[in-house]
Amino acid sequence: SEMAEKNASQSWFTQFTDYMERETRGVEIGVYTVSGIFLAVACHRMRPITKFRHPSQIPQHFVRNKLKQFGRVESVEPSQTAGPVLRVNHKPPINIFFGNRDTLPVKIAGVTVNHNGLSWLQGVTADRKVEFIPLFMHPDTAECVVFVLPTDQEKRLKKNPRSLDVAEALLSLGFAQTTGVPSEVPLKDKKMRDYYKLLTYVEKKAKNRREGVWKSKLPAPIWPLRLLQDSFDRLLVSLLPQSRRLPQLVR
């Protein structure tokens, strides 16, 4: 009888362990399946390996959420319709396209660039790493806010060097004019509207100083006013923290 009880006990234990093993395996399969679905959805939304070569490839939720992208400017080309176009070699978060040099045509948002601006862009942005934020998609260009990132040398020489906002720099030199706030910008999008207001303010300062194109478009200021303006600008620059000053190159 003891042997029978022992066999019955072992049989019950074997059945129990078999049952638990089957159930656990089912749970594991379920967990892996759900995890795989979430990973697939995340990859579809974030596009970690997608290299953008054309504006139509940039998802609308990237534009809506203003997701930062990175790349290198291969060249700057003139365009009859869009003005200067940056040919950006886009670098996705997981870059597996090391030998691929296809480029995304990028238009600088918020400004109309003149001929001096084209030359400046070719000298300052070509072969430099950039950060860009897609705002509007056009058939031939992606309209973006573009920042030139500090070089390794600038990082060594300066503490927290500032990225260069290309539109702001062009306006400060009088090499571009603002386009105003586009009608597509929603009234509730305060951050974007504030950005366009900043560009308008930078342009106003360039006009007052008769920078670039404004030197020939506007009459020379009365000299006492110019002297006061220059003194005020120097004082303002001296009071600004280093991180908020435009690089010497564009002042």
Automatic annotation (TrEMBL):
<dbReference type="InterPro" id="IPR035437">
    <property type="entry name" value="SNase_OB-fold_sf"/>
</dbReference>
<dbReference type="GO" id="GO:0005615">
    <property type="term" value="C:extracellular space"/>
</dbReference>
<dbReference type="InterPro" id="IPR042421">
    <property type="entry name" value="C3orf33-like"/>
</dbReference>
<protein>
    <recommendedName>
        <fullName>TNase-like domain-containing protein</fullName>
    </recommendedName>
</protein>
